[in-house]
């Protein structure tokens, strides 16, 4: 299958070195996408051009990368990174802009998680200054709400190995007041985006209630079903086109 998965990601809060590395990953992903889609015709499998939306800390980049690997397509982290490249007029920014303008989206997956869980999850993030790997020390449990509106949420910690434990540090922006401010900004900026995709019938809401091992088995059947419907729609469009050509030649 050709296509790509895009998820919003902010490079500015991770420092200049991380931003440089992210730019390199973006260039590599764009190159992969060009190679992956080269030579594909209308008879090929449907393109998996999907976007993952969600507030900071919901895990959209993690889920998008896992899903991209499962479907065999590149994962491109967009958001601040691509906007910055476009504003500079760089060739890579122009390439990304052409890609986004020419891509026909098939699905916009809107990931959500209760705000109190997001805050606790972000505050539990830790980075090993020795190896650079990320962990999460938060052990999250919320019972279902009495009115039945919210389900039970269970998220065990992603604990570091013994060799990393002494080297853990908290990122400067993973403080409660900063996290809550970022969530408020996201709500304001995301609302019109969500409304736009919802009006066009592309937005699908997906609530996260557990960790990645428990959530992926819920998510993957949904995405496989959407991929199957995309393929069916493509086949129907091809049949209609063939019928129109046959009628025109009579």
Automatic annotation (TrEMBL):
<comment type="similarity">
    <text>Belongs to the adenylate kinase family.</text>
</comment>
<keyword id="KW-0547">Nucleotide-binding</keyword>
<dbReference type="InterPro" id="IPR000850">
    <property type="entry name" value="Adenylat/UMP-CMP_kin"/>
</dbReference>
<feature type="region of interest" description="Disordered">
    <location>
        <begin position="230"/>
        <end position="250"/>
    </location>
</feature>
<dbReference type="GO" id="GO:0004017">
    <property type="term" value="F:AMP kinase activity"/>
</dbReference>
<dbReference type="Pfam" id="PF00406">
    <property type="entry name" value="ADK"/>
</dbReference>
<dbReference type="InterPro" id="IPR027417">
    <property type="entry name" value="P-loop_NTPase"/>
</dbReference>
<protein>
    <recommendedName>
        <fullName>adenylate kinase</fullName>
        <ecNumber>2.7.4.3</ecNumber>
    </recommendedName>
</protein>
<dbReference type="GO" id="GO:0005524">
    <property type="term" value="F:ATP binding"/>
</dbReference>
<keyword id="KW-0418">Kinase</keyword>
<keyword id="KW-0808">Transferase</keyword>
